[in-house]
Amino acid sequence: MSKFLKAFLFASVIFAPFAASAVTVASWGGAYTESQQKAYADTYSDPSSIVFENYNGGLGEVRAQVESGSVTWDLVDVLPGDAITGCDEGLFEDISDEIAANAAPGPDGESMAEDMENNGLEYHSGWDCCVPQIFWTYVVFYDPDAFPGEKPDSMADFFDVEKFPGKRGIHTWATGIIEKAMVADGVEPNAVPTVLEKQTGALDRAFEKLDTIKDHVVFWSSGSKPLELVKSGEVVMAIAYNGRVGAANLAEGENFEYIWEGQVLDQEYLCLTTGAPNREAALDFMWHASTPEAQAEQAKYITYGPMRASGIPIIVNNEPWGPGGVDIMPHMPNTPERLAVSIVSDPQWWSDNGAEINERYAAWMGN
Amino acid sequence: MLLRSVDDSQINTVFPNTFEEYKKWDKEKDELPPEEVYRALFEELAYGDKIQVGRALTRMNYSKSGWKSLIKKTSRAIKKAVKKDELPDNYKDFLIEANEKWADPTYWYAMGQMVNNQTSIYYWNAIDRTFDQELNVVQQEEDRRVYVQTWLKTLKVSIYVTVFCLILGFPVAHLLANLPLRYSNLLMIFVLLPFWTSLLVRTTAWIVMLQQKGVINGVLVWLGILSDDGRIAMVYNETGTLIAMTQILLPFMILPLYSVMRVIPKSHMRAAQNLGAKPAMAFWRVYLPQTIPGMSAGGLLVFVLAIGYFITPELVGGKDGKLIGSWIAYHLKTTLNWGLTAALGAILLGFMLIFYWLYNKIVGIDNIKLG
Predict the structure, then answer these.
(1) Which range of residues forms the domain containing residue B353?
(2) Mind giving me the DSSP string for B230-271?
(3) A interface mutation test: which of B146, B149, B199, B323 has the most A CBs within 10 A?
(4) How many domains does chain B have?
(5) Does B13 touch chain A (CB under 8 A)?
């Protein structure tokens, strides 16, 4: 055996255990994962033990890993609908007892679940397998220079192409848009999920409203696109992930205005894969990443709001919290007055109806 | 994976008794299934494995939206009752009490799709068909019909792209094969550089070129050919998809053509002209037939790649950007409807085999050459 080979084998025996003990977190990449790295991993007791890997969302890869028995992702950062399905299907492990015992309580001793309920959230089965991360939101934004006179400030304006001529940028799937169309059609934002669930014909109403802007729409499918569309003047207003708009305003010196009315808040969870190779270490990281402090910390790097209610006062009381000494709350989606005109997307309803609505939306787009 | 397109056994292991009893239900006679069905469902939900039920839920939701929360809410009520040891006297009343949807026959009709270990529903779904309550194949509700139009669009785009690649690629390959080496090498670099560039970079570059406030429109407006309001929409529609895909797939046409043309002796054309053919005739009768192996190889390559394309169309295609590949990816990753994914994939494979067969009939598969 050559010397080199011996050395190689020796090294692999020595280093293999270390390599294996790194907790792999699958997340969305880009500025979002960067903010997780800084807020969660860098503040963790052993930062080097956390490795982020990019994926594009959805449970397809998780299911493939779990079914084939070769799990490489310990934790997965998912949307609430996927947290629910993953937990129901056993792709994520039910750790409700561990969460109850180990998740950091809020400042007044409230449990993590109570802390989330204080933020207007409702229990769903994803809570059994996952810990909360942040709120992000589908928000409409525009460049004020595009409107020399009156500026749009409501969903009705977004859907009114006569009052505010010009193209609109919207995404190629239905989540978020359906709710906005309902608001434009006169439904109280907070009532939208109930109306969608209970009222027959509510969806038809949303699609009828969408028809009114159909000829004035540019569709986008990747998160950076709406920013480019508005910047280049291709559209006058667009729906975007608020974190992207926040980054453009804070880091790139843009001056975009938001229309907070009718913003659609969605949740983000960190879930433990069934059969995760580093289960214990992953759990420990979960407890760290779900503390109110860590969630508030993340707001320093991206304008997404803590899902735990007790994370918000940490930011408010310590302003300027943002990068370079700017106040971050003006860019955050979940201040009380903004929440009053917002929709909190109902993951259970979307998980029931999403596939069907997305087909209908695609048919609407294509015709 | 192909087996998944017809397999429905998982859910049958979760609700065996329910389905057994369900089959005895006379839909003509009774509006709702008999008590035994409700009872079997109650028991299988009460004592079933939570994860297996969870997996079945995902499946059930494909047959009708709303199954997921219906079963979950019902399960909670059932488990509560079982825990308190309060088994109902009438299971039907109990379930309807727990959720009024159990009195809605449409849920029960949807269950009919799932009661066998094999199913053809995914194939029917993939062409906008579904089952009615008697399990007859009927058209999908009108506002949900997306797949047939997507199939047609995918075919159309692939055929157009192949034809455009051929039209654009042929002269380039000819130049490459016939120019002196120092020019042809330079030209080859122009072909290969984009070929080696990342797909996303090239796609984004096309957006910059084509958008309404983009380079091409800007130049045209500056030259006064277009008015400022008359900018052409060349991207976020089908035009954009065709332009970008053609450019991206062009090297797959040029390279096989080039390698075939390179070995066609130049003396053939001279001989033809010597024997009295005009240049056009010599080209048509002597040169072109010899390039058929290259055209076939390039055409097949481009077509096969184009029919499964989805990233570029999604980025530049706007509302027309969802080709069948997008749907396969969507169901694979987001809805987890792997049955439908497999059915769509199988149909796509079928298409390719048909084209291959046609091609073999018309051109002959031995006539394919990469040089």
Answers:
(1) 147-367
(2) G----SSSHHHHHHHHHHHHHHHHHHHHHHHHHTS-THHHHH
(3) B146
(4) 2
(5) no
Q: Which residues contact B61 (CB under 8 A, 6 or more apart)?
A: A351, A352, A355, B67, B68
Question: What's the CA gap between B287 and B283, in Å, rounded?
Answer: 5
Provide the ipTM.
Answer: 0.84
- Considering the domain architecture, whether residues B331 and B215 belong to the same structural domain is answered as yes
Closest among A230, A232, A39, A44 to A139, alpha carbons compared = A230
Give me the half-sphere count of Cα atoms (radius 13 Å) on the Cβ side of residue A244: 22
The pTM assigned to this predicted structure is: 0.87
Other Cβ atoms within 10 Å of A30 Cβ, number: 15
Evaluate whether residue B327 is within a structural domain: yes
pLDDT single digits (tens) A91-144: 999 999 999 998 888 888 888 999 899 888 889 999 999 999 999 999 999 999
- Which residues partner with A265 through β-bridges? A137, A344
Find the closest chain B residue to A91 by CA distance: B51
* Within-domain flag for B27: yes
**Residue B315 at interface with chain A, using a CB cutoff of 8 Å:** yes
Which residues lie closer than 8 Å to B212 by C-beta, 6 or more apart? A234, B231, B232, B233
User: Based on the domain organization, do B151 and B298 belong to the same domain?
Assistant: yes
Kindly report the CATH number assigned to the domain that includes residue B259.
1.10.3720.10
Q: Does residue B198 belong to the interface with chain A, where contact is any CB pair within 8 Å?
A: no
Domains and CATH numbers, chain A: 3-135+267-328 (3.40.190.10), 137-265+341-366 (3.40.190.10)
pLDDT at B144 over 90: no
pLDDT in tens, B110-124: 888 888 888 999 999
Partner A contacted by B313 (CB < 8 A):
no
pLDDT for B33-42, tens place per residue? Answer: 888 899 999 9
Domain contains B3: no
Contact check, Cβ <8 Å, A89/B58: yes
Cβ-Cβ pairs closer than 8 A, A with B, add up to 110
* Cβ <8 Å between B65 and A353: yes
